[in-house]
Amino acid sequence: MSSEPKYIRKVALIGGTGHVGSHILKHLLGTSQHTITALTRQPSSKFPTSPNLNVLSITYDDQTALINALRGHDFLIITLSARAPPTLHRRLVSAAATAGIPYVLPNYYGYGLGAHAIRDPIADFSHYITDVAQTPDVSYVALVCGSWYEFSLAMGEPWFGFRIRDRSVTLYGDGRKKVSVSTWERCGEGVASLLCLPVGEGVARWKDKEVYVSSFLVSQRDMLESLHRVLGTTDAEWTISYEEPAERLRAGKEQFAKGEFLGFAKALYAAVFVDENADFETRRGVDNGALGLGSEDLDAATRRAVAMAEGEIGDLGY
Q: Counting CB atoms within 10 angstroms of each CB, which of 140, 220, 281, 293 has the fewest?
């Protein structure tokens, strides 16, 4: 479009205090190239102080207020919690289109789409992409990042199979199936790097496509070895059990059908370890190089996961 700016300068962000949203905000502010408007339903002390950040309290039920708040921005980033109202994402996209925002990063953070999709998911999050694709005058750039590494390792057995506090793990199959994963830091720096590129080399290049980023290509066995290095343990100090991922997928779906939330997590992650597309780094390739993203330290990320597991997340007892 002829009026398209050469660079993305004004960014609107929904969910700037959440897990991934806070890391995106941190890295965007770190570039000093953007003015960010963080839309929030209520004031929060979690927002950093920066001359490049405007925190705007707004009710998401007021479509006119949303449109007015979004006017003049070049890009909208949406990060919503799983508890967000099911129609909210679509209304945010509609408001962005009406406000004249040409690009949206939808609330999609996971594995690939189309031919690169996980084939037997318990939930299909691609409707977030559809919300943008079916809205005139706005395009999406989707972030494919795989599972969030620290979160998935720390949350408990239904996720990556680990109970770090208890020193126990369920390995899927032999535990050596490798999958692509990303840290929250990688997600944040990936989005910031994308928006620092000239539009023609960045968002226009990935217009209505997925940009693939990854921190590590790892197996559960790799995760366990990293935990050993961080904790100073050996296999002998862990309780190690085994389960076939296809059986785990079936059992998780059955649990979830009975209304058990943990069955959802179990099936969601089992599907990842069943499907070959979870290794998108090998099968498709990643865009780390095009975004100027360097390597990360697996043990440093594992150390963060341990801190999470030994904190409030571990208190949940999953």
A: 293
Residue 142, SS3? strand
Residue 143, SS3 per DSSP? strand
Query: In whole angstroms, how far apart are CA 277 and each of 9, 118, 272?
Result: 34, 6, 8
DSSP secondary structure code for residue 4 in this structure: -
Adjacent-strand bridge partners of 109 = 143
Exposure string (b/e) for 240-272, b if CB count within 10 Å is 16 or more?
A: eeeeebeebbeebbebbeeeeeebbbbbbbbbb
Residue-wise pLDDT for 161-203, tens only, equals: 999 999 999 999 999 999 999 999 999 999 999 999 999 999 9
Q: Which residue has the tokens 């779906």?
A: 253
- pLDDT, tens only, 194-249: 999 999 999 999 999 999 999 999 999 999 999 999 999 999 999 999 999 999 99
Q: Cβ atoms within 10 A of the Cβ of 200, count?
A: 11
The answer regarding whether domain 10-146+183-212 maps to CATH 2.60.120.260 reads no
Nearest to 187 by CA among 305, 79, 275, 99: 79
Sheet holding 239-243, edge to edge: 162-163, 168-172, 239-243
Give me the residue label for tokens 């959440």: 18
CA 184 to chain centre: 7
Q: Which fold has domain 148-179+216-280+292-312?
A: UDP-galactose 4-epimerase; domain 1 (3.90.25)
Q: Which of 149, 151, 135 is nearest to 102 (CA)?
A: 135
Q: At 84, which amino acid appears?
A: A
CB 260 within 8 A of CB 251: no
Distance CA 254, CA 256 (A): 5
CA distances from 26 to 13, 48, 49, 144, 191 (A): 12, 8, 11, 19, 11
140 C-beta neighbours (distance < 10 Å), count: 24
